[in-house]
Design brief:
about 450 residues; membrane
Length: about 450
């Protein structure tokens, strides 16, 4: 114990890494690009939904359905659960009962610098879908619950989901009451009757809310023109979106992310993410996850496309529904499907199926921060005006050609990089800042790049 107390805290060594966890993280990292690629154009809203359902055999509709059912929300949930699992693993590896304050200092230093990476991603790289900032804030909160038993973490999970549901409904009901008052006031005006000051305020408030909905597409067209211009014009759009996500919508993000992080922490402690379960239990989880998750996911995409496909339908829903329950359905289906997805990955990993690919995905997962920020660099340069200026130029299905190219690049260079370096460059910087000392970077002896069908071997420097 005395020897342990004198050891300097340091990053985990190669030989101590959990390979299946790295592979799952690599898949989640690549998978999240399936949604982040939406940054490349105006793919959403009632007008776009109308174009989709007008051609249900077209590639845009088919791609939308596949992405929405199998991946939308699921990859983000998986990434969030893995973040929680990674935090739990980090805490367990660094835990020192003789110096508990050291863990606090080290952990919050780690989260602080992750937050800085998030600000860099949002305000320098101009990637307004950044998740690092909110992950850092959520991670600071989740740390306070680190010593709860896994079962207790899962019991707290629905409480946070309920908080999110209540928060959604509070804002929804406020907007709905404003609209109902607006309708009442405008009806009185049409009859030539006087309205109260409160009703006048409601008219002004609803007109502002309605303008933000942008059914006319005026604001969308204005932003498109800016996003196809120079860096400062792009920044004028992305800064506003990023700032709203970090302030106005932060509570929504936290109530979405914290329960998933807690679930990830519990699943790590139970051995789910580390492949310690028996194969039959992964198979049971896969079957149950898909049987429960897919029907709800299919219903969700049907609702999005066929109910909210016009301004009239949208307003009719608001007028006749005092509550919204989408958050609950959304969380249930994504959690079940993620559990199914992970079970499938672990079963493939245990069976050494596609082992040549999984080994490379392990390398992608080891460089998750670097690869995440590299995705930001590539997609913003490809789509925005200061780069190749392809914003709003591609059909929805064509976005996934870009995704495929980025996937190939990251699967190719990640194992090659780790052959010569201990960490990805951003991981190295993050660790050096966290421990406040320069970490060794290069390997004294290069590792061995995996050949097809063989495990990825990396020699640990001593």
């Amino acid at each position: 114990m005395e020897t342990h107390a004198k050891q300097n805290p340091a990053p985990v060594k190669d030989k101590d890494r959990i390979r299946v966890l790295d592979a799952i993280r690599g898949i989640a990292l690549l998978g999240i690009l399936l949604m982040n690629i939406y940054i490349g154009g105006n793919y959403g809203g009632v007008e776009y939904n109308q174009t989709l359902i007008a051609n249900t055999t077209g590639p845009n509709f088919i791609t939308t359905v596949i992405i929405s059912i199998f991946f939308e929300g699921k990859m983000r949930a998986l990434f969030c659960m893995l973040f929680g699992a990674g935090l739990m693993l980090y805490i367990l590896q660094k835990k020192n009962p003789e110096n508990p304050k050291g863990l606090w200092k080290l952990y919050y230093s780690r989260m602080f610098w992750l937050l800085i990476f998030g600000l860099f991603n949002a305000y320098i790289l101009l990637f307004y879908y950044d998740i690092l900032y909110s992950y850092a804030v959520a991670g600071m909160i989740v740390f306070l619950m680190r010593y709860l038993k896994p079962g207790m973490k899962t019991l707290i999970l629905p409480i946070f989901i309920l908080i999110g549901l209540i928060t959604d409904n509070v804002m929804y009901r406020s907007d709905r009451e404003t609209r109902l008052t607006y309708l009442e006031a405008t009806a009185l005006q049409e009859k030539g009757e006087e309205i109260t000051p409160e009703q006048t305020e409601a008219i002004e408030a609803w007109e502002e809310i309605y303008a933000d909905m942008d059914f006319s597409g005026e604001k969308r067209d204005e932003n498109t023109e800016k996003l196809k211009s120079g860096y400062l014009d792009v920044a004028s759009v992305t800064y506003e979106r990023s700032f709203e996500g970090q302030t106005k919508y932060l509570l929504f993000l936290l109530t979405d992310q914290i329960p998933l992080m807690l679930l990830g922490m519990a699943l790590l402690q139970w051995g789910f993410f580390t492949g310690r379960w028996k194969k039959k239990w992964y198979l049971y989880t896969l079957v149950i996850g898909y049987l429960v998750g897919f029907p709800i996911a299919i219903n969700n995409i049907y609702t999005d496309l066929y109910i909210f496909n016009s301004e009239e339908a949208f307003m009719n829903f608001i007028d006749n529904n005092p509550f919204i329950w989408f958050e609950l359905n959304y969380q249930v289906q994504r959690i079940f499907l993620v559990m199914g997805h992970v079970s499938l990955i672990v079963l493939l990993h245990k069976a050494n199926v596609f082992s040549w690919l999984l080994r490379r995905l392990e390398a992608v997962g080891q460089m998750a921060l670097t690869n995440y920020l590299m995705q930001s660099v590539l997609v913003t340069f490809f789509f925005f005006g200061y780069g190749l200026n392809y914003f709003d130029e591609l059909e929805f299905y064509q976005l996934y050609y870009v995704v495929g190219v980025i996937w190939i690049l990251q699967i190719a260079y990640s194992p090659i990089w780790l052959r010569y370096y201990r960490f990805g460059p951003c991981e190295w910087l993050w660790r050096s800042l966290t421990y406040w000392r320069k970490m060794p970077f290069k390997r004294s002896t290069p590792g061995i790049v995996a050949m097809p069908g063989q495990p990825l071997q990396v020699k640990s420097d001593k």
